[in-house]
Amino acid sequence: MFLRGDYLVMKFKHYNQQQMVLLPYSFDDLIPEKHPVRVVDQVVESINIQPLLKAYSKEGNPGYHPKMLLKVMLYAYMTNVYSSRKIELALRENINFMWLTSMTIVDHNTINRFRSDKLKDSFKEIFKQVVLMLASEGLITLKQIYTDGTKIEAQAGRYTFVWGKSIKTNKAKMLTQLEDLWNYAQSIANDDDPNPEPTEFKEISKEVIEQTVAKIAAKLSGNEKASSKAKAKLRYIRNNFVGNLEKYEHQAAILGERNSYSKTDKEATFMRMKEDHMQNGQLKPAYNTQISTENQIIVHYTIHQNPTDTKL
């Protein structure tokens, strides 16, 4: 800074956005030698991606190279970028992603298809190769590992749940309603039928519903004592009970040994999650993930539907 006449003149380094350069800049020069993105690149280049190639077809137009997409996904997850749209944005603006793809722009739909369809069946094999590579480098021994679990919330509706207890309760209510209507039909038919047919309602089934409805209809038909309310209830049972029972049985088949599941992610089970420092847990659709580590490196993982570790 100096004075020139009556003016104060400031000194700055040269700046001109339109300045031409003799040799274009290289992303490789801008990324430090030991940057994590270079580790991702070296690891993927060292493993066998043949299991991943099996997910591709030889027909149709050429697709993006799976090795490039795998590098993008690994580095994105390493830097806590999970949204496909944010990954697409990074491919346009982040020099590390641009270096991995050599300036190739991949849209978010392609990213989603790659991780949900192409990578799904081969990820465990790729993970296994990386773990063995770490062992060969002496970073892990696989002789002493530590396992701990954590619950990860699923990307599913929190209020679209199905409970096993509700299924049992609803089936029990159906059985009670059927039994009550049968007893009513028996009671108004006693005068005409001195020897009423005994019926035991132990478990609801399609056959029990159809047979009982037919018998009740025979007793109520033409009987002046039959109330309109009873006839309406019979119509409701005839029109809805079989369908409702099939729905409950389908839900029970999805549940298996669990006590709940989410309608928008049927593999997710509702688990109590720790929300805050007061540990005020809420039931949310989640998975119980068990992670094994050695030297702070993940060497194995399993995903479970049971909310407690003792049942794994």
Structure characterization notes:
This protein is α+β, with helices and mostly antiparallel strands. The chain is 46% helix and 15% strand. The protein is built from 11 helices and 8 strands. It has helices spanning 27-30, 36-46, 50-53, 66-78, 84-93, 95-101, 108-118, 123-136, 164-188, 206-220, 228-255; strands at residues 2-4, 7-9, 146-153, 161-163, 260-262, 269-273, 282-294, 297-304. Strands 3, 6, 7 and 8 form a 4-stranded antiparallel beta sheet that branches. Helix 5 (84-93) packs across helix 7, helix 9 runs antiparallel to helix 11 and helix 10 runs antiparallel to helix 11 (228-255). The relative contact order is 0.10.
Q: Could you name the key traits of this structure?
A:
312 residues; alpha+beta; two-stranded antiparallel ribbon; four-stranded antiparallel β-sheet; 46% helix
Elements, N to C (H/E):
EEHHHHHHHHEEHHHEEEE
> Could you name the ranges where pLDDT drops below 50 across 5 or more consecutive residues?
none
Distance between the termini: 72 Å
Strand content: 5-15%
Helix content: 40-55%
Oligomeric state: single chain
SS content category: alpha+beta
- Choose one word for the global shape: elongated
Q: Mind telling me the C-alpha Rg?
A: 33 Å
Mean pLDDT: 88
**Number of beta-strand segments:** 8
Please sum up the structure shown.
The chain has helices at residues 27-30, 36-46, 50-53, 66-78, 84-93, 95-101, 108-118, 123-136, 164-188, 206-220, 228-255; strands spanning 2-4, 7-9, 146-153, 161-163, 260-262, 269-273, 282-294, 297-304. By secondary structure, it is α+β, with helices and mostly antiparallel strands. The strands form three sheets. Strands 3, 6, 7 and 8 form a four-stranded antiparallel sheet that branches. A two-stranded antiparallel sheet has the order 1-2.
